[in-house]
Amino acid sequence: MFDGGKVNFDETAGCKQMSRYLRLMHMIACTVAASAIAAAACASGVAAGSAQHLNADATRTAIAQAERAVRRAEAQRMLWTTADEALRGARRAFEVGDLATAVAQARIAREHAELAMAQKGYPPFRIQM
C-alpha cells in the first residue's frame, strides 16, 4: 500500500513485470487458440482417428483450397493468425501422414480465412447515440 512517502523504484522491475505479463498473455492466447482449433475439428466431424476414409488426393485438395483462401485473405490484408496457424498445422500433419488432422486443420484454415474476408465488410466501430 502506498503511504505517500518516496518510492524506491527500480526501473527494471517494471520491465520484468511487463515481460512476465506478456509471456502469460501469450501462453493464454496459445492455449485458447489450440482449444478452439481442437473444438472446431471435433465439431466438423473430422478428428484424428476418425473412421472416415481419406486418401492423399482428398487431403491435398483440402489443403489447396485452404491455401487459396489464405492467399485471398492475405491479399486483402485481412488474414487471421488462426487461419495461418491452422494451414501450417495441416501441412505438418500431411507430412507425417495424419490425413484426418490435415483435413480438419485445412478446413479450419479455410473457414477462418473466409470469416476474415467477410469481416472486412463490417464497420471498424459503431457510433451509438
Question: Describe it for me?
Answer:
This protein is mostly helical. It has one domain. It contains 4 helices and no strands. Helix 2 packs antiparallel against helix 3 (81-96), helix 2 (56-75) packs parallel to helix 4 and helix 3 (81-96) runs antiparallel to helix 4 (99-119). The two termini are 40 Å apart. 25% of the residues are buried. Residues 45-51 have low confidence and may be disordered.
In short:
With about 130 residues, the chain is mainly α. The chain contains four helices and no strands. The relative contact order is 0.14.
Strand content: under 5%
Shape type: flat
Query: Stretches where pLDDT falls below 50 for ≥5 residues?
Result: 45-51
User: Quaternary status of these chains?
Assistant: single chain
Give average pLDDT, whole number: 77
Succession of helices and strands: HHHH
Helix content: 55-70%
Kindly, what is the distance between the CA atoms of the first and last residues, rounded to a whole number of angstroms? 40 Å
The number of distinct structural domains comes to 1
Number of strands: 0
Q: Treating each run of at least 4 consecutive H or I residues as one helix, how many helices?
A: 4
Key structural traits:
mainly alpha, flat, 129 residues
